Amino acid sequence: MTTYDLGVLTADIVMLALLAGVVAGIVFLAKVAFKPTGLSPTDADWYPDPDNPELLRYFDGESWTEATRPLAAPPGS
């Protein structure tokens, strides 16, 4: 049976704590890096169409509608 010296046991615990901290830091940075950049609209209005950058799509305040218009169309059309 192997007996551990108190110094070796302390060093092992410190190494495990450092390793856990590194893993937690990597997970945190990965979550920050993959956060969506666009905000979801909350007000009913015309917004850039997520599927076609040349169109605007109407958001009714709850969901995207089928209504679209050209990006260069004047407001109110």
Q: Taking all residues together, what is the mean pLDDT?
A: 82
Q: What is the total domain count?
A: 2
Question: Any low-confidence stretches, pLDDT <50, length ≥5?
Answer: none
What is the end-to-end distance?
83 Å
Q: Describe the sheet with the most strands.
A: 3 strands, antiparallel
What fraction of residues sit in β-strands? Answer: 15-25%
Instruction: Give the SSE string.
Output: HEEE
Based on CA atoms alone, the radius of gyration comes out at 26 Å
Q: Write down how many β-strands occur, each being a DSSP E stretch of 2 or more residues.
A: 3
Overall morphology: rod-shaped
* DSSP summary: helix tally: 1
- Helix-strand makeup class: alpha+beta
Organism: [Mycobacterium] nativiensis
Domain DUF2510: 46-75
InterPro entries: DUF2510
Protein name: DUF2510 domain-containing protein
Explain what the structure shows.
With 77 residues, the chain is α+β, with helices and mostly antiparallel strands. The protein has two domains: 1-35; 36-71, no CATH class. The chain is 36% helix and 21% strand. The chain has one helix at 6-33; strands at residues 45-48, 55-59, 64-70. Strands 1-2-3 form a three-stranded antiparallel β-sheet, with no helix packed on it. It starts with 5 loop residues before the first helix and ends in a 7-residue tail after the last strand. The mean pLDDT is 82.
